[in-house]
Amino acid sequence: MTDNSKVVDAKLNRNIPLWLITFYGIGTILGAGIYVLIAEISSESGNYTPFSFLISAIIVSFSAFSYSELSSRYPRSAGEATYALEAFSKKWLSLLVGWAIVLTGIVSSATIANGFVGYF
Q1: What are the CB-based long-range contacts (under 8 Å, 24+) for 7-13?
Q2: Which of 4, 13, 43, 110 has its CA 20 to 30 A from that of 54?
Q3: With contact defined as beta carbons under 8 Å apart, do 93 and 84 qualify?
Q4: Secondary structure class of 74 (helix, strand, coil)
């Protein structure tokens, strides 16, 4: 088992420049969300499609602000698992959050693949 004081003093080694990580995020959002699922959204919302995107942008801005605050407060890798550990001091909960992130990645990859197959 490691000492928590050693973990607190650890700093992230930032090797990826801001412009590159920004383009990575934009590419993921555009590739996965907009181009693959725009037809589904438009079929559901019809003439209200721009309004639905505006509402989505407002909702996601709260998450983006929260993540920016948490990442500046706890600059360590593991993201949500670290935040859960800091908030609740339960290692089992942090582990559960980490596995939930893995599961979310699998489900979102399957969704993107399903959308790609629909276009292909």
Answers
A1: 7/76, 10/76, 11/75, 12/75, 12/76, 12/77
A2: 110
A3: yes
A4: coil
Nearest partner of 29 among 41, 37, 40, 19, judged by Cα: 37
Query: Could you tell me the two tokens for 55?
Result: 């509402």
Q: pTM higher than 0.85, yes or no?
A: no
User: Among all chains, which residue has been given the structure tokens 């993107």?
Assistant: 112
| Token digits of residue 24 | 């990575």
Q: Kindly give the residue spans of alpha helices, DSSP state H, lying in 32-90.
A: 35-45, 49-73, 79-88
Query: In whole angstroms, what is the distance from residue 85 CA to residue 94 CA?
Result: 5
